[in-house]
Amino acid sequence: MVEYKMETPDISEKPDKKREELKGKVLNLKDLVNYADGTVASRMIISRKAGNITLFSFDENEGLSEHTAPYDAVVTILDGECEVWVAGRTFQMKEGETIIFPANVPHALSAITKFKMSLTMIRE
Protein backbone atom coordinates (compact mmCIF):
# COMPACT_ATOMS: atom_id res chain seq x y z
CA MET A 1 0.00 0.00 0.00
CA VAL A 2 1.11 3.51 -0.78
CA GLU A 3 0.46 6.44 1.55
CA TYR A 4 -1.50 9.04 -0.36
CA LYS A 5 -0.46 12.63 0.06
CA MET A 6 -2.43 15.33 -1.68
CA GLU A 7 -0.21 17.33 -4.00
CA THR A 8 0.00 21.08 -3.57
CA PRO A 9 -1.48 22.82 -6.62
CA ASP A 10 0.77 24.78 -8.93
CA ILE A 11 -0.33 28.15 -7.54
CA SER A 12 1.48 30.06 -10.27
CA GLU A 13 -0.43 28.09 -12.92
CA LYS A 14 2.64 28.36 -15.18
CA PRO A 15 2.39 26.11 -18.24
CA ASP A 16 4.10 22.74 -17.94
CA LYS A 17 5.50 21.66 -21.32
CA LYS A 18 4.40 18.02 -21.01
CA ARG A 19 0.88 19.06 -19.99
CA GLU A 20 0.68 21.78 -22.63
CA GLU A 21 1.44 19.18 -25.33
CA LEU A 22 -1.82 17.40 -24.41
CA LYS A 23 -4.08 20.37 -25.08
CA GLY A 24 -6.20 20.51 -28.23
CA LYS A 25 -5.74 16.79 -28.96
CA VAL A 26 -7.98 13.75 -28.74
CA LEU A 27 -6.60 11.63 -25.89
CA ASN A 28 -7.06 8.12 -24.59
CA LEU A 29 -6.38 8.70 -20.90
CA LYS A 30 -5.32 5.13 -20.13
CA ASP A 31 -2.50 5.47 -22.67
CA LEU A 32 -1.01 8.48 -20.84
CA VAL A 33 0.28 6.55 -17.81
CA ASN A 34 2.23 3.28 -17.96
CA TYR A 35 2.23 0.35 -15.57
CA ALA A 36 5.37 -0.03 -13.44
CA ASP A 37 6.24 -3.35 -11.81
CA GLY A 38 5.58 -3.46 -8.08
CA THR A 39 4.48 0.13 -7.66
CA VAL A 40 2.02 2.95 -8.31
CA ALA A 41 2.78 5.45 -11.09
CA SER A 42 1.07 8.78 -11.64
CA ARG A 43 0.88 11.61 -14.14
CA MET A 44 -0.81 14.93 -13.49
CA ILE A 45 -2.43 16.22 -16.68
CA ILE A 46 -4.16 19.35 -15.30
CA SER A 47 -3.06 21.40 -12.30
CA ARG A 48 -4.89 24.59 -11.35
CA LYS A 49 -5.89 26.45 -8.20
CA ALA A 50 -9.44 25.17 -8.77
CA GLY A 51 -8.36 21.53 -8.96
CA ASN A 52 -6.36 18.91 -10.78
CA ILE A 53 -6.65 15.75 -12.83
CA THR A 54 -4.15 12.99 -12.16
CA LEU A 55 -3.84 9.61 -13.85
CA PHE A 56 -2.61 6.61 -11.86
CA SER A 57 -1.53 3.08 -12.69
CA PHE A 58 -1.35 0.37 -10.03
CA ASP A 59 0.45 -2.91 -10.30
CA GLU A 60 -1.42 -5.96 -9.01
CA ASN A 61 -1.76 -5.95 -5.19
CA GLU A 62 -0.78 -2.26 -4.94
CA GLY A 63 -3.11 0.40 -3.55
CA LEU A 64 -3.59 3.58 -1.57
CA SER A 65 -3.94 3.32 2.20
CA GLU A 66 -6.95 4.80 3.94
CA HIS A 67 -6.89 8.60 3.99
CA THR A 68 -9.16 11.63 3.72
CA ALA A 69 -9.03 14.70 1.49
CA PRO A 70 -10.56 18.11 2.15
CA TYR A 71 -12.27 18.12 -1.26
CA ASP A 72 -14.62 15.86 -3.22
CA ALA A 73 -12.73 13.58 -5.62
CA VAL A 74 -14.06 11.78 -8.70
CA VAL A 75 -12.38 8.48 -9.58
CA THR A 76 -12.96 6.76 -12.92
CA ILE A 77 -11.47 3.35 -13.63
CA LEU A 78 -9.74 3.39 -17.03
CA ASP A 79 -8.44 -0.19 -17.15
CA GLY A 80 -8.52 -3.30 -14.96
CA GLU A 81 -10.27 -3.88 -11.64
CA CYS A 82 -9.92 -2.62 -8.07
CA GLU A 83 -11.59 -2.69 -4.70
CA VAL A 84 -12.57 0.63 -3.12
CA TRP A 85 -13.52 1.43 0.47
CA VAL A 86 -15.53 4.55 1.28
CA ALA A 87 -16.78 5.25 4.80
CA GLY A 88 -16.69 1.55 5.70
CA ARG A 89 -18.44 0.32 2.53
CA THR A 90 -16.63 -1.86 -0.04
CA PHE A 91 -17.12 -1.67 -3.81
CA GLN A 92 -15.57 -3.66 -6.63
CA MET A 93 -14.97 -1.46 -9.65
CA LYS A 94 -13.97 -2.09 -13.25
CA GLU A 95 -13.19 -0.15 -16.41
CA GLY A 96 -15.73 2.57 -17.17
CA GLU A 97 -17.09 2.87 -13.62
CA THR A 98 -16.89 6.06 -11.54
CA ILE A 99 -17.20 6.83 -7.83
CA ILE A 100 -17.18 10.12 -5.93
CA PHE A 101 -15.16 10.23 -2.71
CA PRO A 102 -16.86 12.82 -0.47
CA ALA A 103 -14.68 15.44 1.19
CA ASN A 104 -13.35 14.47 4.65
CA VAL A 105 -14.64 10.87 4.40
CA PRO A 106 -12.10 8.03 4.81
CA HIS A 107 -11.41 6.07 1.62
CA ALA A 108 -8.83 3.64 0.22
CA LEU A 109 -8.34 1.38 -2.77
CA SER A 110 -6.46 -1.73 -3.79
CA ALA A 111 -5.75 -3.41 -7.12
CA ILE A 112 -7.47 -6.70 -7.87
CA THR A 113 -5.70 -6.77 -11.23
CA LYS A 114 -3.38 -4.14 -12.63
CA PHE A 115 -5.56 -1.08 -13.05
CA LYS A 116 -5.50 2.55 -14.14
CA MET A 117 -7.67 5.39 -12.90
CA SER A 118 -8.31 9.07 -13.35
CA LEU A 119 -8.61 11.21 -10.22
CA THR A 120 -10.31 14.60 -10.54
CA MET A 121 -10.03 16.79 -7.45
CA ILE A 122 -12.16 19.95 -7.35
CA ARG A 123 -11.19 22.48 -4.72
CA GLU A 124 -13.62 24.97 -3.20
Structure notes:
- With 124 residues, the chain is mainly β.
- The protein has a single domain (28-122), classed as Jelly Rolls.
- The chain is built from one helix and nine strands; from the N terminus they run H-E-E-E-E-E-E-E-E-E.
- It has one helix spanning 17-20, and strands at residues 40-48, 51-58, 63-67, 73-79, 81-86, 89-94, 98-101, 107-111, 115-122.
- The chain has a five-stranded antiparallel sheet, with no helix packed on it. Strands 3-8-5-6 form a four-stranded antiparallel sheet, with no helix packed on it.
- The relative contact order is 0.25.
- Residues 7-12 have low confidence and may be disordered.
Quick summary of this structure?
It is built from one helix and nine strands, in the order H-E-E-E-E-E-E-E-E-E.
Provide the spatial order of strands within the biggest beta sheet: 1-2-9-4-7
Strand content: over 45%
Mean pLDDT equals 89
Distance between the termini: 29 Å
How many alpha or pi helices?
1
The description of the largest β-sheet is: 5 strands, antiparallel
Q: How many domain units?
A: 1
Structural class: mainly beta
The CATH architecture category equals Sandwich
Key features of this structure:
3% helix, Jelly Rolls, 5-stranded antiparallel beta sheet, globular, 124 residues, 4-stranded antiparallel beta sheet, 1 helix, 47% strand, mainly beta, 9 strands
